[in-house]
Design brief:
Length: about 200
């Protein structure tokens, strides 16, 4: 048995990261160098690796790493990850703890929840479900109903059609917004955020 000094123990503690479980949402600490863990509360496997979808994948992707859906690829199942980049299509529910970037045109038929939403320059996106985000940057075209806890930014070639409720709306010269615009207080945003998040937590199929 090895005896660790107090300093070593402290160092190990610093090198650990909180990870929340996809299944039961409880958090536990994991070493930063680990590439997977098992939830101590419900035994769900949690991977940390990055995933690349090249052609088609039907099973759901769950990782605390980043996911890239390449051009021409289709992810039929849902995805839970940190950052998501979509050049192809995702047909299932989308949950990102950080950014969801849509960089090619598509129709998003299932709920999306993410910290930051990015619509790429030449992308035209139609969202069937209302989306609530902390921050949004629209460089292309976005259709849907958006609630934003922070800044909703429409770039110089950005176009938004639908309804936007945000704490702050910034439209660069050349950008365009058509529809219902509302500036909301944080409290209301959080209430709406809670509601749409609950919708996003619903059953997969
Ligand atoms: Zn769990």
């Amino acid at each position: 048995m090895t005896t660790r000094t107090r300093t070593q123990l402290l160092r190990e503690e610093e090198a650990r990261e909180e990870v929340s479980c996809f299944n039961c949402a409880k958090s536990h600490k994991v070493s930063r160098s680990a590439d997977s863990t098992i939830c101590p509360y419900c035994s769900t496997y949690i991977g940390f690796g990055d995933v690349e979808i090249r052609e088609q994948r039907t099973s759901e992707v769950r990782t605390h790493g980043d996911v890239l859906v390449k051009k021409g690829a289709t992810l039929v199942g849902g995805v839970s990850c940190r950052n998501l980049k979509v050049y192809g299509k995702v047909l299932g529910r989308i949950r990102c703890t950080e950014q969801a970037a849509f960089l090619a045109s598509s129709r998003v038929l299932r709920p999306v929840s993410c910290g930051r939403l990015l619509i790429g320059k030449k992308a035209k996106l139609h969202f069937s479900h209302p989306i609530t985000v902390e921050e949004a940057e629209i460089r292309g075209e976005a259709h849907g109903e958006f609630t934003c806890l922070g800044r909703f930014h429409v770039g110089k070639r950005g176009m938004v059609y639908g309804a936007v409720a945000a704490k702050a709306i910034v439209v660069d010269a050349g950008g365009c917004m058509v529809g219902e615009l509302r500036i909301i207080k944080e409290r209301e945003a959080i209430r709406r955020f809670g509601r749409t998040l609950a919708e996003a937590e619903g059953p997969t199929s």
